[in-house]
# Entry
Amino acid sequence: MLTFLRKFKVTIAVILLLGLFLAWWNGTRSYDDTIMATVPVFADVDESSILQQEDIKSKLEPSYLKYAETHNKAGAKDTESFKQTIASMAYSAISPQGAQVQEDLGGRSGQVLALMEENSWAEYKIHVPQDGYYQIGMNYYTLPGKRSPVVRAVRIDGEYPFFQAKKIDFQRMWRETGKPWYDNQGNEFNPRRLEASGWQYREFRDTEGKVYEPFRFFLKRGEHTLRIEAVREPAAMGDIVVHSPVAAPSYAQIREEYDRKGYKPVRDFSLHIQAEAATLRSDPTLKRIEDREPTTEPFNKDAIVLNSFGGPTWRSGGQWAEWEFEVPESGLYHIGARYGQWYLNGFPAQRSLTIDGKLPFAEANAFTFPYAVKWQIAKLGNEDGLYLFYLEKGKHTVRMEVQVGALGSVLEKITDTTHKISMLSREVIRVTGTNPDPNGDWRLEESIPNLVARLYMMARDFDDVIQELYKLGVKEGSSDISTIYQARDQMIDIARDTKTIPARLGAITDLQSSLGLWVNGLSKQSLILDYLIVQSPGRSWPKGEAPAYVRALTMAGDFAKSFTKDYSGVGNVYGNEETLDVWVARGRDWVQIIKQMIDEDFTPETGIKVNVNVIPAQQMQILLLANTAGLAPDVALGVEGEVPIDFAVRDGLVNLNRFPDYKDVAGRFRPGALIPFKYNGGDYALPENQNFFMLFYRKDILEQLGVSEDDIPQTWDEVLNLIPMLQQNGMDFYYPHAPNNPNLAISEFAPFLFQYGGEFYREDGDKSNLDAPEALQAMKQWTGLFTNYKIQKQADFYNRFRSGEMPIGVADYSTYILLSTAAPELTGWWGMKPIPGMKQPDGRINRATGGLGQTGMIFKSSDKQEQAWTFLKWWTSADAQEKFGTELESLLGVEARWNTANVEALKRLPWQKADIDAILEQWEWFKEREIVLGGYYTTRYIANMWNEIVLNGKVIREAVEEGVREINKELRKKREEFGIDDAGTAKQAAADQGGGWP
# Structure
């Protein structure tokens, strides 16, 4: 035993020493700035690309920062003492459709104009007395829609002045309805958040919060036309106000005013405003969350208590929360907060603070919350001391809004430099082609002007960013800043040996992707609050954390409870009562919504009580083991699409078409979505959600190439005609291929197979059909994209789509979400259409493709099959799916938008109309593959065929025939194993094989 303890201690010591060494090494290697001394300084060097005349961004508007910089250099100044208020009904022109007059809205008498439909608009004439900067604001009233923020675009004299003007958010207001509710385990849950109606005023400002102040619009003296366009969601407009910029006074000026007015500090007062009790918020995703630090208020060691606010969801520019509080006397107060900011490694987060709707002084526009891996107390102030806030006796509101302003210029510089790298890569590709010989002597310096100088100047751009980040308070040792160091050093390394560029094109592409992810990551400024502090000056501040021994005791208690507490149950857990057991393979946040819907809607309507348990997503073996042990639930949700047939062949599931209303329920989905769940004449699952492949394209770039929106490829022949044009201009077409995930190969091949009229199997799944003429032609078409047309075998489509290197390509639902939420500069410049297809003899285009999602199924061992079917019908109904999708998006944001398989529910969810229309058009051709025993060999060998043909140059027929032989062996083996005869009927099912569960 002593020997063991000695070895254990030695091992721990070695691990600690190794950890300290790695931490030291990581810290020192990232901050070696001596390399910059070797970088030459270039003066008066043109670092623009030779492609600048056809720059992909020439059709894109400049950013707001560049717009302001251009006008500042030309001598533009703020105007003074001007204000023009325009009633919304005083329009000079409106769109023929979508604009509507509303009367006596929200307590406001008279008529106002509402923009109800996407692309509706109203124009107004404004008259300004002098050249200079003006700001614009608007009263607005949100109307019932799809719960998303109202988005408007602004044109001045027919043009968008900068790209942020195409997407300005006007947030809705949300409040909790009622108090939090508790399950029968004592755990606290968020109350529902409903929209609070009311008129609001907001200046036109950056949706992402990357600019501190409202936008300044440069206008020349005279008359101008202001057009406000509806991008998303209906809302009424009150007054539109055009005015000279308003500069908030500095704190020093405010302090002088305090002294002049004789304001005095209050005494003996301290108030903790519990952050979880926010009275209003801009987004329903902002909610109460749990924290287990013992000093978090309140704390319950025995159950979940939602004792803090914000966290990962309170991160995007423009999101705000508001709290009410009351002070006993007029005077000067300090304000602070107990917060956690462990989300941005080494980077501070920022919030603006307003009191009673006003900014108290300029510095309140950007309070900084430094990074730390523990709770902290923020005492709002600067290096000269804490700020004093004057508050009148009585009630007040304090609002905190996400602000990214300090990082805005830094993130833009990284984006610009990434664009320069992209342009340089395109120049290289024009010289070397898309697949250059890495050993060739390309003499790039002769073909590309200022190549070395441009590389060194990009390195200096990155170094400037590094120094700026340090000034902003980024901590040394941050792993995030190392990304910029690596980019800087890579540019220097390439500049020193430009002959290596053709061999390093892949690394350069990876660098662009990592920089894109870096920018997106730092644009999210998450913060968690426990409480706000309002107290008298001189009073002591609370501690940020409990003492170490208290935290250790709490952790020990939680650890001890983990041996007895069941963490899989969600919401009300019923004991020996007659209940339906439902297992859900999704995240806990998702399952909590399902359980809340069950308790609020399903159980009161049907009287059926339901226990819901969480199981790990994508670990379907748990269901297999549970069924083997006789512990299977009645219903399982979130089941991967390939799984139901594995259970059905073993006689483990209920055949749903034995229920008399099955056909009516199946009508909720596209017929092709049900194919994977059919076996031996039965139907064994219902789809919950569906993935989908679509064609994404950049309107601006394709227009420059002479491809109008009406000419976007409809067929694969048209795609093949487009690819050479793209490649001649240093661009490429994208088709997905995931070499590290062979399971996706079958989905990548399926569109070509189905569009050529082929199938994966014949003879009821007894044999592979991949050697049929249609399948061989499909394989030729698929692999030919990579062999004959040399499109990239692997690429980060999202980032290369943004950079313009891949202005068109096929991608799935996740790309749609990314482009919708994280590419504001492309607003209005990208579109989505159904994927290309094959033209049929009748002139129609076959666009068949699938998108296997998750399913719900009923176990045959259940003794409550009728109740289980009632539950599954309710869950897949349009009403339930709409509510779940809405609640999910309210909880987790647009990133979690629910791609329901229910066609009617999809139409109701908050997608933009043009996007819904494109998806529904694609769904007209929706078709999924058949799932058969041994089908995993099909997946494996389709990936192998691609590798053999594309990477090893094997003849298509040979590669396919070799794969088909192996697939057929496995199909035959599996059918024999489960006693399935040639006619495709099951013998004696699972009982004859010891339950059929190997």
Notes: The radius of gyration is 31 Å. Residues 1-30, 982-998 have pLDDT under 50 and may be disordered. The chain has 25 helices and 46 strands.
